[in-house]
Amino acid sequence: MAEDLSIVQGTKEEKYQSVIPQIKALIDGEPDLVANLANIVAALMEQFGWLWIGFYLVKENQLVLAPFQGPVACTRIKKGKGVCGTSWEKAETLVVPDVEKFPGHIACSSKSRSEIVVPIIRNNKVRGVLDVDSEQLAAFDETDKQFLQEIADLIIFE
Ligand code: SME
Q1: Whose CA is nearest to atom 7 of ligand 1?
Q2: Tens digits of per-residue pLDDT, 147-157?
Q3: Ligand 1 pocket check: which of 68, 105, 109, 111 to mutate, most ligand atoms within 8 Å of Cβ?
């Protein structure tokens, strides 16, 4: 039985440093991808309270919505479209301080002001992305990039 997450009040670094071992413990020894993605987004949402956090997985050359927390979201995103599709195409993390200034941003929620998308890369192929949206402008920076990439690297496919 999983225990309640221990929520840390503090700097962003302290919050990540607290939640990452908890995520490792949650997914350790569990081979089911959906179960692990679901617990990762739940743990991060509980710790940070962002507007939206979720995964999209590459399926038949599209990004398809996977476990998430927050308002309902677009189900499918094509390569090169929006922030998620661009992160997939470029295979790089995108930090978007103001979504209105990102050409082609897909507004799943009108409340979203800033966004970070981290690709999940295995054997040089993007298998999916981790997307986080905030109601605040410029909510994400190098710290989020570093820690969210670390979290994306924990995920075991197959
Ligand atoms: N804003 C994203 C779409 C996904 S939602 O924010 C959940 C984008 O432009 O790719």
Answers
A1: 73
A2: 999 999 999 98
A3: 105
